Amino acid sequence: MIVTLLDIVIAGLLMGGIYALIAVGLSLQYGVARVLNIAHGEFIMLGAFITWSLYTIFGIIPLVSLAISSPVVFTIGFILYRTLFTRLRTSSPSPAVFEGKSMLACFGLLFIIQNVAILLWGAEIKGYSYLAFPVDFWGAKFAANRLITLGFAIVFGSVFYLFLARTRMGKAIRAAAQDPVAAGLMGVNISWVLAVCFGLGALMAGLGGTLISMSYQIQPTMGLEYTMIALIVLVLGGLGSIPGSFIGGFLLGLVGSIVTYLQPGLSLVAYYVLFMLLLLAKPTGILGR
Amino acid sequence: MAILEGNGVTKYFGGLAAVSNVDFHVEQGEVVGLIGPNGAGKTTLFNLISAALRLKSGTIKFRGIDITGFKPYRICRMGVARTFQTVKIFPNMLVLQNVILGSYFGMSPRISSSDAPKKASEILEFVGLSRVSATPARDLTLANQKRLEVARALATHPDLLLLDEIMAGLNPTEVAEAMELVVRIREKGISIIMIEHVMKAIMKLCDRIMVLHHGQKLAEGTPQAIATSEKVIKVYLGERAHAGS
Amino acid sequence: MDIPKVISKKPFVLGLLFVILILMATSPLYATRYTVILLTSIFMYVVLTVSWTVFSGPTGYVSLAPAAFFGAGVYTSALLGFVLPLPAVIIMGGLSSSCLALVVGALTLRLRGIYFVMFTFGLVELLLHFVLWWEVNITGTTGRVVPTVGNTMVYYLMLTILVIVILIAYLIKRSRFGLALQSIGECEEAAAHTGVHVTALKITTFAVSAFFMGAAGAIMATRWTYIDPRIAFNPILSFLPVLMAIFGGMGQLYGPVIGAAIFTYLEEFLITRFPYYYMLIFGIIMVIAILYLPEGLVGLTQKLWNRIWGAKHGDP
């Protein structure tokens, strides 16, 4: 009985680590750059497929290939912001209009990226095996790749937290999140910072995709579900709170693990039920402002 | 009977008390002024009355009925209308359409589709905007936009009108016109609460003035009493000479 | 002859619409089977796009749920197709979508618009997962059969729904509720303080718009004859109506109609020649439309029209 509970908790944390990562990425994009990126899942998918290609074609092992895939995904996000979203921002009469338009633009991007992926890699399911051997962890067996995933998510989360708290760029991002205009007046190069945030958000999505590809099968249409999960984590943690998204990710992972144990196939439904409860009781989430 | 009554009205934003235990009342037909430094809680109080915000504690009664917790549309239909500090007109709708919305939805009982345009035109005539009735609201001058907000509020057939700084940003001529409009509204029997920083207007138009400071009621009384009150002068009004003019 | 004056005269427009309606009503008699099927698809997309615009156009609350409501209608058709006569099935399809919309609206429309967007975004995938789970674990079926109906019948049913939805959209727009919906989009707080019961109006309008999407789904199911959750709940059917409305322009009623007609035909044209590229192209058009066509095609045409004819009348 106890082993089963531990099984569930750890499985929840393993998935939660990925959820936390992708949610923080989306939180950066929405909370700071004010773009509700509903194409977020497509960046996750890109990360997964780039990793797959680098591994199956060039034999570069997944965690090392991050050195290639991360800058690529970051750059795509960065350029997208500097071109498309900056243009939208300057031509929108109000922040509310910008939020609406940028969300719709992301809707278009969703189908663009997804179909580019289908054209490049084909529509079928793919996968690869890497570090798939089981590891004994307090009596329960888990695949090594999944444990590495969790470790990685935690390490990355901590590094990112330190980045936000200690570095100049991190402070600039936090300032921009609170008040972009004031930050700009204080000498922060706002358009640069916002683009970096968007790029970082995309990078985290790509990272999540890489980690997912290590343990699961992938296909070009995988993104939508992850976007939904990221959105729900955002609401759970509180819109605009980056630490909230991190914690919320792990919480949702636990919920998913419990539900999958009781009734596999219903985890997404359970997430939505949680979403509905939040809407009814506390839309601002656990750490929301 | 007091048309509006508030007891122990309190509202917190986080840890800060924006409005703290304020009692107030407005008698039928009165014009009450609400003054105080910026951040004193004046607009917050309006937001609490019109239900744009929810009270933390206390009660507000309109015509003896407890309206705490009612939704804004219901309070409007009961007879409380307001304008906003930052003008909130419907920019892409025509001036007439802005007002007619008030006729359609703010009146209780419901008005027919044939009567509404007539009523709306009458109101535009009353506030002096007939000339521009077919103009998109965004093309109006600031003074006229404020006038339009008042017209829209009047279209809902209110017994109590909350005016939030309708004279802010107006030149002296426009201020005089606005003051004259307030007098005409009062003559129709509508009770008014007005938030204003233009002291000349407050002193001239109001029967009674309430002063808020840091969310609390600092003083209340006739314009003369307020102008000569030591407390108020210290906090807000500055020179005695200023207040008198 | 003063062309703008003639075209804007009411009898002219009504006469034109009447002629178009007669043409549409009689086309199965002389058009090819292919044309009838194509027209049915166009009608379907027009219904989806116009219904979407009824709510999301004036209020600015972007619903990403059309696919979910359409799918609900499809499934209703599958569940009730052999039990009830077709007209009843279609109405039930519409009603089930409306009920779904009422729930979604009650949950999200009391709150900021962003929650509405997020919730409707995931709705189609949620329903897909749920129905899939249900069919696998509870009913044991995967996929259902829908009773077939002839192409001509489907054509006329869709045309009927089309006429009704356009009529309703027109009536709403002209009524006090149309004005109220617009006021919600322009300044919701002021609308609430002007006596508009904003939440009730939003939820009701959302439910009304969902009805037609469900009805369209119920009708189209009969053309497919076999459906499963993946066929019924297809995210592309959320994307296309939004694209068509934005591209066509939401200011006038005929904007979505034109947008739907153009893209349905484009889809037909491209899906055979560039089967993998056409959605990519649509995505790009969406982004371009958001960037450069804020008023849509209709808005652009109006601007050009004013430039050509406006000068003649001395307009600035």
Largest sheet of chain A: 2 strands, antiparallel
Q: Under the CATH scheme, which class of chain A? A: Mainly Alpha
Number of domains of chain A: 1
Strand content of chain A: under 5%
Q: Total number of helical segments of chain C? A: 14
- What is the helix/strand order of chain C? HHHHHHEHHHEHHHHH
> How many helices of chain A does DSSP assign?
11
Say how many strands of chain C there are. 2
**CATH fold call of chain A:** ABC transporter involved in vitamin B12 uptake, BtuC
Into which percent range does the helicity of residues of chain A fall? over 70%
* Strand order across the largest sheet of chain A: 1-2
SS-based structural class of chain C? mainly alpha
Class based on secondary structure composition and strand pairing of chain A: mainly alpha
Low-pLDDT runs of 5+ residues of chain A are: none
Radius of gyration of chain A: 19 Å
Which runs of chain C of at least 5 residues are low in confidence (pLDDT < 50)? Answer: none
Which percent range fits the helix content of chain C? Answer: over 70%
Rg of chain C, nearest Å = 20 Å
The global form of chain A is: globular
